[in-house]
Amino acid sequence: MDVIRLLDIRDSALSVDEVLAAVGDHAAGGTTVFVGTVREQDHGKPVASLSYSAHPSAVDELRRVAEKIAADFPVTALAAVHRVGDLELGDVAVVVAVAAPHRGEAFEASRRLIDDLKSQVPIWKNQLFTDGSSEWVGACE
Fold first, then answer.
1. Alpha carbons 28 and 12: distance in angstroms, whole number
2. What residue stretch is flagged as signal peptide (predicted)?
3. Mean pLDDT across the chain, nearest whole number?
């Protein structure tokens, strides 16, 4: 079975349960899940909402990132799903999960997966603040 179980960019609500189920594996002794949500402040400014946009190559880049994680860590399964479109405070924006033989490997691989997704996959965030201003945040922060 392929180690990369689920990769997607969606314009609908994300399911943590779906991502966790995708990485279920009897060979794993540790499974980590990271859930990124829309927070109420950024850089000290109150956030009203935000919108994510993705380049057409984003899924291919996400696969490249996932393949690198699978090559660099002894993972048994991994999954990553990112949301695009308009999101409100508290909405789930991204979910990544990694299963590995040991918890340390799962934590390290999961951290690298979310960090590399954020820095290498062409997904952009437009934050709308309560004062009416907005800010574009690129994937390469």
1. 29
2. none
3. 95
- The answer to pTM > 0.90 is yes
Q: What is the CATH number of the domain that holds 75?
A: 3.90.1170.40
Beta bridge partners, 95, equal 35, 81
| DSSP letter, residue 56 | T
Let me know: does 86 contact 128? Beta carbons within 8 Å: no
Confidence of residue 1 (pLDDT cuts 50, 70, 90): low
Residues 77-89 as b or e (16 or more Cβ within 10 Å = b): bbbbbbbbeebee
Q: Give percent of the chain above pLDDT 90.
A: 94
Tokens of 133: 């201003």
Q: Write down the residue that tokens 């979910």 correspond to.
A: 95
Q: What's the domain count of the chain?
A: 1
CB contact set of 69 (below 8 Å; sequence gap of 6+): 75, 78, 98, 109, 112, 113, 116
Range of the domain at 52: 4-137
